[in-house]
Amino acid sequence: MSKPLSLNSYSYFEIIDGVLRYAMQDYRRLYAVRADVRFPKGMPANQIPGNEVMGRFVKSLRSKVKYQRDRVRTKYGRAHATDVRVVWVREFGPESKRPHYHLMLVFNRDAYRSLGDYKSDDDNLSRCIQGAWTSALKVDFEMHKWLVSFSRNGQYEIINGHGYRQALEAMQYLCKEYSKVRDGARNIGYSLARKDLLTHGYSIQCVH
Q: What is the pTM of this model?
């Protein structure tokens, strides 16, 4: 892919495909993660932030990943760097009617090849992701880190293109239509590892 995605003409699935292909141009090995992020149950509906929270999340995650890689470099003398690429979709619970987000996060596999133990206090990728979400919400980390959940078997490696199809098919979960709400706010956004978070100005209907 030689240029950024055209926001006006792509379905959810094509956006996910494009972000993965864009990442493969930079790294021969990729590590992709499926994660879900939610708001505190006690947060009143009128206090739940809009999609701007995802911009804060991505900015914070990039900062935390860079800091973590710098710490590894200081400790061991070298560390592989990684961009952070993201696709997010906004959905609503069928009973709660509250929004939540499903994410695809893509990294250089030479920098990360696992989330680490997200129940531990280790300096790992899962802690970076949890910290970025609690930072975006401006809530206490220890009390709210469980607002981030990671899908069982939701980690994928793409090595020289191998594993790409499996990862892409798994990420179709983000495309499901029944849990999207058309209320004027966008339901999908993505980042191609640029400084700005590129997002749609409107909701897109997923076409299979």
A: 0.86
